[in-house]
C-alpha cells in the first residue's frame, strides 16, 4: 500500500466582535502554517466573529454570497496553496433576515472554491456549571445531512463542536469512509476542562480516524470563556499536537493515513455490527 500523508495545522484563535481584527489574526497564522509546510489549515468554530450577544451574532451574519469573511478566507487558500477548513461562519440561509441562522462549516480548495459545506446538526442547548444557559436552537436551525468529502488529502468527515457528544454521527462518517474527522469548536471553558480531550480521543479511537480539532480560547465579548486546547489526535488516540491555552497559536502534525488502516485492523469495531435486541427490565 502506498503511503499517503500530509502535514495538517489546527489554529487556536481568540476572536471577538471585530471582523477586521479577527481576519488579520487568521491571515498571520495561515501564512505561518503554510510556510511550515501545512497542506490543510483548520480554523475553529466562529473563527471570524464571536460575541455572547445573539443580536450581535445575527448582525454579523450574511448569506454566503455576501459574506466578507468567506470571500477573504477563500482568497487566502490559493494565496498559500492550502486546503482550508473554515470551522464555521454564521450564515443566513437564502437571505432570510428574520428566520433562524445556520452554523456552517466550509472546506475550501487550494484554488479557493468551496468543496463542501456542513451545517451543524446538534445544537448546544445546555445549562452550564456556573448556572448560565445556552440555547443555540433559539437562533440557529440544525442541519440534517452528514458530510464526507473525498479530497486528494484523504476522505474528510465534517462536524462542529457540540456534535462531538454524539458518537453515532462519527460512526456514520467512518462507515462512509472518513479517515479524518474535523471538529472545530468554541467549547466552553467549564465543560472543556472536564470533557474536551476525552471526547476527542474517544471519537478517534472508536472510529480509527485522525481528529483535527481547532479551537477558540480565552475571553470573548459578553464575558464568554472558551477552553482552547486545539488538538490533532491519531487513530490510536495519541495526541500529536496541542495548543494548550495559548492565544493565536498553531499545532501541526504529519497525517499518515495508513495509520487508520492499521488501527482498524487491530480494533475491528467498524466491521462488527451485531444484530441484537434491547430488553428493558423494570
Describe this structure in words.
- The structure is a single chain.
- This protein is an alpha/beta fold and 282 residues long.
- The chain has a single domain, classed as Carbon-nitrogen hydrolase (Nitrilase/N-carbamoyl-D-aminoacid amidohydrolase, 4-Layer Sandwich).
- Helix content is 26%, strand content 29%.
- It has 6 helices and 16 strands.
- The protein has helices at residues 19-35, 54-60, 68-80, 167-175, 189-207, 258-266, and strands at residues 5-13, 40-42, 83-91, 102-108, 114-119, 125-127, 133-135, 147-151, 154-158, 180-182, 210-213, 215-220, 224-227, 231-233, 239-242, 249-256.
- Strands 1, 2, 3, 4, 5, 12, 13 and 16 form an 8-stranded mixed sheet that branches.
- A hairpin with a 5-residue loop joins strand 6 (125-127) and strand 7.
- It is globular.
- The N and C termini lie far apart (52 Å).
- The mean pLDDT is 93.
Q: What's the helix and strand layout?
A:
Layout: E1 5-13, H1 19-35, E2 40-42, H2 54-60, H3 68-80, E3 83-91, E4 102-108, E5 114-119, E6 125-127, E7 133-135, E8 147-151, E9 154-158, H4 167-175, E10 180-182, H5 189-207, E11 210-213, E12 215-220, E13 224-227, E14 231-233, E15 239-242, E16 249-256, H6 258-266
Parallel strand pairs: 1-2, 1-12, 2-3, 9-10, 10-11
Antiparallel strand pairs: 1-16, 3-4, 4-5, 6-7, 8-9, 11-14, 12-13, 14-15
Helix pairs in contact: 1-3
Keywords:
about 280 residues, alpha/beta, Nitrilase/N-carbamoyl-D-aminoacid amidohydrolase, 8-stranded mixed beta sheet, about 30% strand, globular
